[in-house]
Here is the input.
Amino acid sequence: MKRKRICPLLPGLLVVALFTAPALRAQSGEDAIRQVLANQVSAWNRGDVVTFMRGYDDSPQTTFIGKSVEHGYEMILARYQRSYATREAMGQLEFSGLEVRMLGQDHAVVTGHFHLTRSQAGGGDASGIFSLVFEKEPSGWKIILDHTSSS
Here is the structure.
């Protein structure tokens, strides 16, 4: 009976795969989260608050902390629509200094800076910092907690 030879590289390749698979999953999670944020910026800069809100989990537990604490997707949406009722008030959004920290396969924390470029009629420029907690949902990565502070 003839024995089949195992490729001598196979055990090494398996070890490499075991150690790199979690890093690749984390990277793909980070990339997906960065894409959610890029989509939010694009929607905001088109004046589309409803599409911007697709980055948030549509849940009563979703929380926004700013000058007050708002619970629930609908309350957060209403807050954005009230605070940024016109295109001038929305201005042009830019995120910078984004740092994504994966907290396992299903959660991540993102910190960064935001800047709104607006006319004086729109309220003038605004900027600040934020921290976001993301959770991986069947529909993709969603914000479940947003803590934003204006400077």
About this structure: Helices lie at 10-45, 49-52, 73-83, 87-90. The mean pLDDT is 89. The chain has four helices and six strands.
